[in-house]
Design a protein that fits this description.
275 residues, Rossmann fold, 5-stranded parallel sheet, single chain, alpha/beta, 2 domains, 18% strand
Amino acid sequence: MPAKRRILLIDSSDSARTILFKEISSRAPELDIIACGSGKEAMTAVKRFEFEIITTGISLPDTDGYELIEEIRQTPKNKDTAIFVVSGDTDTRVMGGGMEDTDAVTAYFDKAEGHRSLVNFILNFLGTQNELPVKILYVDKSATSTAITTGILEKNGIEYVHFREASQALECLQQDLANDANGSFDVMITDLMLTSQTNGYELIQTVRNELELDYLRLPILLMTIEPGEDERTDFTAIFGAGTNDFITKPVDEDDLLARLQTLVNIKRQSEALNP
């Protein structure tokens, strides 16, 4: 991810670019927004900068939007960037499969839904906290580890619910899903060592298999101890259980926040693409 978060807006309409630029700037002032009115201007930008999202219309004054996307996919900096096609008439091209690489377009957005819906779509995909604050389910029986982790969460204004027992966490998730089919938690953090009855692996497997919360609906961060000199990290067990990522204790604040941001982005992007 680039140090400066950037998005590129490509639209032949001066008024549309201005409206989007102002709306996004007001709601996410930390973003660096570049707006272009032609394919030539856009290609100059994508060769120079790395973007997290690029939006483009289909009809541009000097090129076709899909041809532009194919050019963008050839650039080293933005070959994997999320690209949204914004148009009032995408059905024919989508159904006809006009592009050789169907993965070149990340998502299509109907212009008829309005600019505010488009801005919500963009910000949700980025994982910004403007409208969707982060909420963590944290499971850990260690008083020391809990104090360190909750201190980091509180310091950074992250809402969390903490339980010592896996059974309590599962009961909370079940009640949460009963109230909201999509669930209100963005990430679950669990320690590997919980109780003699249930460890972190078993908790994760229950969440994945019995509650049917997959990697996208509820990303999970597993906390483990640093392996000794004669030990090796059991990656097969960690990821085989259904973990998205893991972090070793004692937890470093910057590392924890970076991993949480990545996991929240995963969930937000899934929500944006599968409303």
